[in-house]
TrEMBL record:
Function: Releases the supercoiling and torsional tension of DNA, which is introduced during the DNA replication and transcription, by transiently cleaving and rejoining one strand of the DNA duplex. Introduces a single-strand break via transesterification at a target site in duplex DNA. The scissile phosphodiester is attacked by the catalytic tyrosine of the enzyme, resulting in the formation of a DNA-(5'-phosphotyrosyl)-enzyme intermediate and the expulsion of a 3'-OH DNA strand. The free DNA strand then undergoes passage around the unbroken strand, thus removing DNA supercoils.
Name the record gives this protein: DNA topoisomerase 1
Catalytic residue positions: Y302
Gene name of this polypeptide: topA
SMART domains: TOP1Ac, TOP1Bc, TOPRIM
């Protein structure tokens, strides 16, 4: 059949980029993610007949599916180029069945990066749909559906409506709740330190030495009397250097990013939540128009991966580029070993071309895209560079029987640190060097003091440390970390305080119910074993139905017992200071899938509800009401009048408090992002100033 070929991808952005590469012989269309899925209103899994799922066309996707069918019917060939992972494979399988394409035919196209070379090469090598990948996704989907739809109604009945349980989300919530219990049950222990400030008589330079122990053996000081006795005795002794050890210390670069490490570093360095990191990375992967000869191009490789593999041509390009940019002494080609149980289908996350430097394309990117691309680019570049080298000195100094130690280091050769320094969850000491000390030399005591300390409880989880914990325990996969954290926050199990994830009373109560009644579901080891079985399905080692057959009977029995055993729990709603204007009661905070709102506790007699009002303290230029902080349907912040919809004032930029336009006296707005500025809201006034 003559005619164009049809290529179906997931997103319009990706479709636009690829259409430019393939030209007029191809029509590139987007499926907008899943078109066919399980219905939301029912379990839709036949547990009696091999867990057969009942799929439907997603509501609102019918017209799009009709368009795809129409285009497919007149195309000479149809290629399915959804994302190169389990989820993408399943979307392609659903599309193949809906469009009457044989899944065993060569209809599937995958590429790890969206560049002209990669896309054209992939089109030449289509393959059949990988049913092992499809079945792994199907098993996960069915398993998660059974757990969620069977346990959630029990939580609704016994605790409150709107709660949900999930195979990964319930374990993540448990980790956060268990950490909170550790913090609450933590008993601080007292300990003391002694620090001496010493001077080298030759150079007159001072340095710090810390008490280590007695006669070279380490000793912990547990009370003030002990510290005071050592302090008094040390003052009466000479501080003599007993040994000096100088050495070179190497610090190796970290490997390029995986999904997990990218989310962790973006959290630490950019203050990005996991969901924001993945959304921004998706846009970099799908393509950005750089203009000129380059045009539209995907800037990074596929961002859902736990592999550290790097393609040979990318390694070669990186080495050549870095030699030119930094000199050959800075370059060290490296290959990194992917951890056990990782999926090695994709490369590590890297720039599609190291030659596209972040600062060269800054004006083509949003602020978030620039920050994240720069992080990915720098981490990859550093991974192919020489180690940093430090001069280190460790000195042991005796004051009678008391042993003190001093340490210093200085950066001798930057190596990879010329490009990138790893983020850390703990503070690192800054470089400091000791004066040139010699064995047996005397030093002069300038000052000596003791300090009391108490051991600290473990820190609460942040996005970064929770993702690290989930990955280390084999819970979830790269694609699940961000949505898991978003879900437990939106459900009200966890709240954010700056970077900390803190469990709510609802989260603690729900976790207790899960621990006492669904032990396996919130057991870290059990969940990790289940992930391993899903990986076995993907590798063709296990049948997906057999995994469900093994899981379901004990789970069903557990459900019946739990339903009888769990007693009804009443969680008191948090009271606000807002008075219900209809009945005079103090309104309480409630949670819906759209976030928090105020409701009258007199329900059902009084059904009054209100959105939570966040004022700006700035008057509306149209009617004099207060401008409020509001959220659009898609969750984007904007600013609108309290008298909306009667007053139609609206702005995307924040109003400036306590300042008027110096030219016309009008409202000033503050624009953030790349072009930070203060400007006048009045379109007839051109006042603005840069920040």
């Amino acid at each position: 059949m003559a005619g164009k070929k049809l290529l179906i991808v997931e997103s319009p952005a990706k479709a636009g980029t690829i259409q430019k590469y393939l030209g007029k012989d191809y029509t590139v269309m987007a499926s907008m993610g899943h078109i066919i899925d399980l219905p939301k209103s029912q379990l839709a899994v036949d547990v009696e007949h091999d867990f057969t799922p009942r799929y439907i066309t997603i509501r609102g996707k019918g017209p799009l599916l009709s368009q795809l069918k129409k285009e497919a019917s007149k195309s000479s060939a149809v290629y399915l180029a959804t994302d190169p992972d389990r989820e993408g494979e399943a979307i392609s399988w659903h599309l193949a069945r809906a469009l009457n394409i044989d899944p065993a035919s060569k209809c599937r196209v995958t590429f790890n990066e969206i560049t002209k070379t990669a896309v054209k090469a992939a089109i030449k090598e289509p393959r059949p749909i990988d049913m092992d990948l499809v079945n792994a996704q199907q098993a996960r989907r069915v398993l998660d559906r059974i757990v969620g739809y069977k346990i959630s109604p029990i939580l609704w009945e016994k605790v409150k409506k709107g709660l949900s349980a999930g195979r990964v989300q319930s374990v993540a919530t448990r980790l956060i709740c268990d950490r909170e219990e550790e913090i609450e049950n933590f008993t601080p222990e007292e300990y003391w330190t002694i620090s001496a400030v010493l001077s080298d008589p030759k150079s007159k330079k001072t340095f710090e030495a810390k008490y280590f122990g007695e006669n070279g053996k380490e000793k912990k000081l547990s009370n003030g009397d002990e510290a005071a006795a050592i302090l008094a005795d040390a003052k009466n002794n000479r501080f003599i250097v007993s040994s000096v050890k100088e050495s070179l210390q190497k610090r190796n670069p970290q490997p390029p990013f995986t999904t997990s490490t990218l989310q962790q570093d973006a959290s630490r360095k950019l203050n990005f939540q996991a969901a924001k990191t993945m959304q921004t990375a998706q846009s970099l992967y799908e393509g950005v128009n750089l203009g000129g000869r380059i045009g539209s191009i995907g800037l990074i490789t596929y961002m859902r991966t736990d592999s550290l593999r790097i393609a040979d041509d990318a390694l070669a390009e990186a080495v050549d580029f870095l030699k030119d940019a930094y000199g050959s002494e800075y370059v060290h080609q490296r290959r990194y070993k992917t951890r056990k149980n990782a999926q090695d289908a994709h490369e590590a996350i890297r720039p599609t071309s190291i030659k596209i430097k972040p600062d060269d394309i800054k004006d083509k990117l949003t602020n978030d895209q620039y920050k994240l691309y720069k992080l990915i680019w720098a981490r990859f570049a550093a991974s192919q560079m020489e180690s940093a080298v430090y001069d280190t000195v460790n000195a042991v100094i005796d004051a009678g029987s008391h042993t003190f130690k001093a340490a210093g280091r200085r950066l001798r050769f930057k190596g990879y640190m010329a490009v990138y320094i790893e983020g850390s969850d703990t503070k690192e000491e800054k470089d400091k060097m000791l004066p040139k000390l010699e064995e047996h030399q005397k030093t002069e005591l300038v000052d000596i003091s003791s300090a009391q300390h108490f051991t600290q409880p473990p820190a609460r989880y942040s996005d970064a440390t929770l993702i690290k914990e989930l990955e280390e325990n084999g819970i979830g996969r790269p694609s699940t970390y961000a949505p898991t954290i978003s879900t437990i926050v939106s459900r009200g199990y966890v709240v954010r305080n700056k970077k900390q994830l803190i469990p709510t009373e609802l989260g603690m109560v729900t976790t207790d119910i899960m621990k006492n009644n669904f032990k396996d579901i919130v057991d870290v080891d059990f969940t990790a074993e289940m992930e391993g079985e899903l990986d076995d399905i993907e590798e063709g080692k296990t049948e997906w139905v057999s995994v469900l057959n093994e899981f379901y009977p004990p789970f069903e029995k557990n459900l019946e017992e739990a339903s009888k055993r769990i007693e009804k729990i009443k969680i008191k709603d948090e009271e606000s200071d807002v008075i219900c204007e209809k009945c005079g009661r103090k309104m309480v905070y409630k949670l819906s899938k759209f976030g928090k709102f105020l409701a009258c506790p007199g329900y059902p007699e009084c059904k009054n509800t209100k959105a939570i009002r966040t004022g700006t303290g700035v008057m509306c230029p149209k009617c004099g009401g207060e401008i409020l902080v509001k959220k659009s349907r898609r969750g984007k912040t904007y600013y609108g009048c309290e008298h909306s919809p009667k007053c139609d004032f609206m702005a995307w930029d924040a109003p400036v408090k306590d300042e008027k336009c110096p030219k016309c006296g009008g409202l000033l707005l503050r624009k953030n992002g790349r072009s930070k500025k203060i400007f006048c809201w009045n379109e007839n006034c051109n006042y603005e100033r840069k920040l």
